[in-house]
Amino acid sequence: MNVRIITPAPPRSRTGNRVTALRWARVLGRLGHRVKLAGAYRDEPCHLMIALHARRSHAAIARYRERRPHGPLIVALTGTDLYGDIRNDANARRSLEMAQRLVALQPKALEELTPTLRQKTRIILQSVPPRASRSAPNKTTFDVAVVGHLRQVKDPLLAAAAARLLPEDS
């Protein structure tokens, strides 16, 4: 199958959208599909389009749907979509309506969707293999790592604020 993955994240970007697009391309490639990543849809032939980010990929989604009214279209919901764009942006909402299937990366995403949209949504929990530990865990501390493309929309200081709620002797 010829699959086109649309992502607003440019090549060599390290944002979550790009990382997800590259991961999915590897998985689909290992399954025997031909996968191309792009930032836009320019009428290239494909059997399936997967678009990350309902608002930022809306032009590609609308063009694909116009050219292929019944073509398979999956929209992967990003955190920015779920916790802002689909509430406030008409194009993001239209992208969800045009998709035959929606994908979210965590179950609480369903709470942000209408009952109709929930029915066509599937949850894909992503994970990575655990790293081999180089040393035994420290039994006197509890280490925390905040991982992500931290920016204002993601409340980058939330972990620090949460740490202040811990007991003083922790």
Structural features, described:
- With 170 residues, this protein is α/β, with parallel strands linked by helices.
- The protein has helices at 16-30, 58-67, 79-88, 90-98, 115-119, 158-163; strands at 2-6, 34-38, 48-52, 73-76, 101-104, 121-123.
- It has a single domain (2-123), classed as 3-Layer(aba) Sandwich (Rossmann fold), CATH 3.40.50.
- α2 (58-67) links the parallel β3 and β4 (73-76).
- α2 (58-67) packs parallel to α4 (90-98) and α3 (79-88) crosses α4 (90-98).
- The longest helix is centred in the first third of the chain and has 15 residues, at 16-30.
- It is globular.
Give a quick set of tags describing it.
single chain; 170 residues; alpha/beta; Rossmann fold; 6-stranded parallel beta sheet; 6 helices; 6 strands
Task: Give the topology, please.
Blueprint: E1 2-6, H1 16-30, E2 34-38, E3 48-52, H2 58-67, E4 73-76, H3 79-88, H4 90-98, E5 101-104, H5 115-119, E6 121-123, H6 158-163
Parallel strand pairs: 1-2, 1-3, 3-4, 4-5, 5-6
Helix pairs in contact: 2-4, 3-4
Brief summary of the model shown:
With 170 residues, the protein is an alpha/beta fold. It has helices at 16-30, 58-67, 79-88, 90-98, 115-119, 158-163, and strands at 2-6, 34-38, 48-52, 73-76, 101-104, 121-123.
